[in-house]
Amino acid sequence: MSEQKTKVEAAIDATYLVTPKQLRHASTRRSNRKVEEIRGLLRALALEKGPGRQLPTIRELCTLFNTSSATLTAALDLLETENIIHRKERQGIFVATSINRKNIHVLFNASSLSNVGQSPFWSILLANLLKESEQHANFKNEQYHFHFLWQPHGQTLSAEYINLLKISQADACILIGANARYQDHTSALQIPHVTFAGGGDITVQVAFQESDQQALHWLVQQGCKKIACIEPIYRTQSSESCQKLFQRLLPGLGLSVYPELFRQASILPSPYGRELTYQEQGYMVTKELFTSFREHRPDGMYIADDMMASGALVAWEELGLRPGGDIKIISHVTPGSPILFGKTRAMATIEIEPIDIVRALFSLLDTAMASDYKPDDVEYFIRPRLRPPSA
User: Fold this and answer.
1) One fold for 102-204+356-382 and 208-352
2) Where does 150-217 show beta strands of DSSP type E?
């Protein structure tokens, strides 16, 4: 008897003891699903009718879609917000003239901007993205929506943003610092998309290995025998470290490898109780290399980050060493950045243009949107430019 009572009580608990709040939530979910369904049907009808054409009346639409006027009105409100339709008082519902406008979403990982001690590369890249999207919007039938997310660099796009793209009926998207692939390499997005500093069907990358090879060959051409290199950790997360590359190539050039002259600056301990800026790291590494290894003091140095090069220049000045004279220097620079302005006359530079990255993203997205989109693995590399010293 007690067992039977327990079963009855369990059935009552599961079936009848539902709070009013739970009922409202369930009702809301059903209502939202119905609004989304009607919204999709209305959107399809508007696309079929074409720009400027009139849609049926509210009563006719309710009959056509077998729905209530409240649900239909909610769906119409959403479509009017998206500029798909517009309502004229006493005239009816009309398809917007901009119905064929492409909605393109740009998702930018703002964690790239969080470290004030990093190169201004990311802020310059963002400025170019904003400028290029404005130009496209002015001359093409496209509308751009920017979203700033915060997550570890290169991590798969969160479900929140994947749903955002679905709900907003995005036609395409550009991802900066986020991955459009799951761990099993399946695609998280079914719309045309391009990525930078992440992963996806179409990926734009900087040819870091080519820039490292350019730097090495330039230093060898200058007669350098003891070559040092410092690089930030973000380089080695996405490509072969310059240390491994140099260790592989130097013997073939008849030169010795000095492992103690290679540094990943980000692993340095901070004496200040905070994360070191890249300038401070460049300063400390350079000071160490040129005071601790007098027997193997470098005669050539490659610096894979402009902020680190800025710190290294301060160290050389304190040590009384002349770049271009006592030591040959080649460094990455970001065109448009003020970090090394007026300081590169005696050093070679490797330029990586943010605008080249942005133009490649837009060009590749245009191509993907213009054809039948078939997800694939496409990699496009931005080639660096080497500029010799001007002094």
Assistant:
1) yes
2) 172-176, 193-196, 202-206
How many Cα atoms occupy the beta-carbon half-sphere of 381 within 13 Å?
A: 10
Tell me: the pLDDT tens digits for 275-329? 788 899 899 999 999 988 777 789 999 999 999 999 999 999 999 999 999 999 9
CATH 2.40.30.100 describes domain 208-352: no
Q: In the predicted model, is pLDDT for residue 241 greater than 60?
A: yes
The DSSP output letter for 287 is H
The CATH fold of domain 102-204+356-382: Rossmann fold (3.40.50)
Quote the pLDDT of residue 177: 93
Go through the chain and tell me how many residues it has.
391
What is residue 185's three-state secondary structure?
coil
Domain ranges of the chain: 2-95, 102-204+356-382, 208-352
> For residues 82 and 119, is the Cβ–Cβ distance under 8 A?
no
Give the pTM. Answer: 0.76
The fold of the 2-95 domain, in CATH, is Arc Repressor Mutant, subunit A (1.10.10)
* Residues 370, 388 contacting (CB under 8 angstroms): no
